[in-house]
Amino acid sequence: MVSERLVIGIDLGGTKIGTALVDSAGTIIAHDYQETHATEGQKAVIERMLDGARRVMAQARVNQSQVTAVGVVAPGPLDIEAGVVVAPPNLPGWDRVPLKQLIEDALGITTFLENDANAAALGEYRFGAGRGTEHMIYVTVSTGVGGGLILDGRLYHGANGMAGEIGHITIMPYGPRCGCGNRGCLEALASGTAIARQARERVARGVPTLIADLAGGDPERITAKLIAEAASRGDVEAREILAEAMNYLGIGMANLVNLFNPELIVIGGGLTNIGEMLFGPVRRAIDRRAFRTPAQVVRVVQAELGDNVGVLGAAAVALGQIG
Fold it and tell me: What phi, psi does 270 have (nearest 5°)?
């Protein structure tokens, strides 16, 4: 028996669109996944989003009148209050697209728009590892580093919706250049992209490492996943690269502990698959660098929602708005 309120969660990404019909307990009743085909333009992409919403309703044999709200999550930058997608780099041709209004008008269902990382934080807070907390920080570590802040039980947006850019905390002022243009950002030091860059540099210098063998001599095949495999086989260089990157991640987390005094830090994203090679250094850095009392309070845990974090985060956005 499903809970009474039903919402649709739509997760718009640069490569795929995930859609789910979800009840207020976080149960996915019906779901749909399809490729974004972003190069075909915004109209084609929005039509796929609408098709996905219609398909999940059809699968569950419900109509628009039975759906309370729609939550849409999209990559930033966004104007949350206006419901506008501004100009995301992985959605070419999108320039101030009023996505909230377009979805709402087409489906006839109240719609809300949110940043993808913020929505993931809400999803973990409501349905995942953050259940029962009031002060939680969500961090995603994969190709980049992102996150969201739950403070006093509410998602914190900041003055104009840009709060939670955890990946762009400066850790090393004269460090490697980040994609944002700054130097030494957490993302430039601890993301999957940063880890792969470090490995390529060592291979290019001729440092003996299993990484080169696993990549078959092709630098383009060097990824964080491949480095983790080399580390699991005992490769010293791979272990050093991961330990250094995860120490930087821990420094970033220690800063957040001192700043926000959270009870929980939830870490998601593809790099969490390396397990204690990530969580061990992060916890040790917090113990060494954060003030003693908040360091003793905070727990660092792995996210629970996995591949469903996008659609469940979108559902959590909708459910949070309707009370």
Answer: -60, -30
- DSSP strands (E only) in the chain: 6-12, 16-23, 28-35, 69-74, 78-79, 84-85, 111-115, 136-141, 145-151, 154-155, 264-268, 299-302
Question: CA-to-CA distance for 205 and 216, rounded, in angstroms?
Answer: 16
Answer for the pair 79, 285: CB distance below 8 angstroms, yes or no: no
Rg of the chain taking only CA atoms, in angstroms: 20
DSSP letter assigned to residue 303: -
C-alpha of 243 from chain center: 22
- Residues 312, 318, 321, 323, CA torsion sign: negative
- List CB contacts of 271: < 8 A, sequence separation 6 or more: 141, 142, 191, 192, 195, 224, 228, 278
Tokens of 57: 């309703």
**Residue located via tokens 């480095």:** 227
Average pLDDT over residues 272-299: 97
23-52: per-residue pLDDT in tens?
A: 999 999 999 999 999 999 999 999 999 999
- Predicted TM-score (pTM) of the model is 0.93
